[in-house]
Design goal:
The chain is of the alpha/beta class. It has two domains: 67 residues, 2-Layer Sandwich (Nucleotidyltransferase, domain 5), CATH 3.30.420; 152 residues, Nucleotidyltransferase, domain 5 (2-Layer Sandwich), CATH 3.30.420. It has a five-stranded mixed sheet with strand order 3-2-1-4-5, sandwiched between helices. Helix 2 crosses helix 7. The longest helix is centred in the C-terminal third of the chain and has 27 residues. The radius of gyration is 20 Å and the shape is globular.
């Protein structure tokens, strides 16, 4: 990453997920690049650019949020800043930013499926009002749960291609049960959403998005053609907030009463 100073237009977006840190580099209102790091990457980090560069941070991990608040130019994004209607207090900031970014860029209504540690569905209608969503364990978490909570089932990696449905050995059976059930659930949610919002955009994002889109292309091609795979929708949402801040700097520069 480049060095920064107070005279340049660069800033960072940071989304703290359940498994990794997700980064984006911006120049003013332009997204330049994205990358991911492990939590441990910054444990012995010596470069002081984090004390200089502005960082707009969203997090679903409170412990990590506190660690990053030690840096002087970190602005924590809260749910109260999200310009969508009907949000509830425990909605994940990652889900809110993703549906805001996707809807602003692609148009409302929109359904965002985030295939991360958890698999989430989040939908907004044409009036930019949250309709609702759902949360279930993601692909990797389902494999881990079987290994951790049973005596004899092994830890499994994600298959790169659709597994054989009717398996004749344990590992393939785990792959089959997990993958096909997950795909059926995704299809069901998409079909239910499209019944109510047939003109909706449907976005798939998150760390497992690409492997799931590969499965869907082979198993449910009609569903596959409805989906846009977009890795950066959360950062699109952060950019929406930055644009609003630049349009009304006095209001957004008021001290945060929450500290």
């Amino acid at each position: 990453m480049d060095k920064y100073d107070n005279q340049n237009p660069f800033w960072l977006g940071l989304m703290i997920g359940n498994s990794r840190l997700h980064w984006a580099k911006f120049e003013d209102l332009k997204l330049l690049e994205t990358w991911n790091t492990e939590y441990s990457y910054f444990e012995n980090y010596q470069d002081n650019f984090l004390d200089i560069v502005p960082i707009r941070l969203a997090s679903v991990v409170p412990k990590q949020t506190k660690l990053w608040q030690q840096y002087p130019n970190v602005e924590v994004i809260t749910l109260e800043q999200i310009p969508l209607k009907n949000l509830y207090s425990t909605l994940g900031i990652d889900r809110a930013l993703a549906v805001l970014g996707a809807g602003t860029q692609l148009g409302f209504p929109v359904l965002v499926i985030d295939a991360g540690t958890a698999l989430t569905f989040t939908g907004c209608d044409r009036d930019q009002s949250l309709v609702g969503g759902a949360i279930l364990p993601g692909l990797g978490l389902q494999f881990s749960a079987l290994a951790n909570k049973t005596a004899a089932l092994p830890q499994m990696s994600k298959p790169q291609h659709l597994p054989q449905r009717w398996a004749i050995e344990t590992q393939e059976a785990i792959h089959s049960g997990t993958v096909y059930t997950l795909l059926a659930g995704i299809r069901d949610f998409i079909e239910a959403w499209c019944q109510d919002f047939p003109e909706s955009q449907i976005v798939l994002t998150g760390g497992d998005a690409h492997i799931l889109i590969t499965y869907l292309q082979e198993h449910f091609p009609s569903v596959y053609t409805q989906i846009l795979e977009i890795p950066d929708v959360i950062f699109w949402g952060i950019l929406v907030l930055r644009q609003k801040q630049s349009q009304n700097p006095k209001k957004n520069n008021q001290p945060d009463s929450n500290g």
